[in-house]
Please model this.
Amino acid sequence: MATKTIDQVNVAFIALIVAVATIGGFMFGYDSGVINGTQAGLEKAFNLSTLGTGFNVGAILLGCAAGAFIAGRLADRIGRRTVMKIAAFLFIISALCAGAATSSLMFILARIVGGLGVGAASILAPVYISEVVPAAARGRLSSVQQIMIITGLTGAFVANYVLAHSAGGSLGTLWFDQPAWRWMFWLQVIPATIYFVTLLLIPESPRYLVLKGRDAEAEVVLARLLGPEEAPHKVAAIRSSLATDHHRPSFSDLLDKTTGKIRPIVWAGIGLAVFQQLVGINIVFYYGSVLWQSVGFSENDALKINILSGSLSIIACLFAILVIDKIGRKPLLLVGSAGMTVALTILAVCFSTAITTGGALKMSDQTGLIALVAANAYVVFFNLSWGPVMWVMLGEMFPNQMRGSALAVSGLAQWMTNLAISVSFPSLAAGVGLPLTYGFYAASALISFFFVRALIKETRGRELEDMVG
Model:
């Protein structure tokens, strides 16, 4: 069967689908980034220790891990779109409760609820997009998810800056005599509501419909996507790609039927998910403001640096979109790993020259500038490679029968690693120091290069029905 190009399909319909699905990416980014700049308010409101700050910041990741794990399997039962609607509702509840929290426990619980939504959105948006768009455009359209994640992060950084600037700091008061840091969370209700409403405008994944035996409904959706002549052929291809016994998808699909061992493709997905976090990217997003203040920048300047990093991330993602379907996924991952290794090594060296003055680290102006350039170079290399490509590959690399289960396991691994890296950072920075901490991230980036070269197979241009485990 000939592969459809993006010019042969209903471009407007696909654009609507991608736009709505990736609002989940925006929510993912906003909910993850809003914490950056609120630590001072949390510490004062809840009288937190360094370890306590780490748990309050990292609490969302507990929910993310659970949300990613549950969503993959739940999406096989009740549908991709239905689970995304549940995620949107969780975003709204979390934003309201986190902003109104009167105790650390209430805040942690609210963030865990939001994390359930983030975890679900993180894996379902790319898989949903990969299941509805043509193979020829799948890479660049799935990469929009990462742009929306970074846009959400940058939006949170901008909102935090504006609110803090208006209030004279994150602890200053705004409307209804509430501190600015609480409004940073409440503002999230607006995009979360938009996400929920617009999800009503898009259809269920045709591959899910075939999986549930609803071939006629799938053909209607595919007719709008690919045209009425192509639709029945695509339904037949999807049907034939499923297990011959048409059994209900389960975690047993992840095992090789002959050896009883986990399939290599599953280990490859888990490895991609884990290494994306071992390089330490979310330290920039969760602790960027605190980190830059710790080496001598003011709170105002630190928030501006966050906005700069977010803007550079979007530009890097746009570059990835332009080339991912031309040069492939694997070359981008290799370039990203190499670039991050160099940038993180430079950062580790810069931090090793900092001295402690009045309980805070201080770099020379020249070293601080080098560190700032290296940090932003690191962000650029991540977002032209591992940022978008990992999500693209997780959405497309697994066979239809096992996609939900494989995503559940890979998503759990990704978010558990994220949790370990994020929660451990304050203690590691205070204990072994920033040079060794960033040295570990650099070593992880170096290892990821050889992991990709040895174990990752190119998926560019291949139909989902042709993926094998």
Summary: The domain at 6-202+242-466 is CATH 1.20.1250.20 (Growth Hormone; Chain: A;).
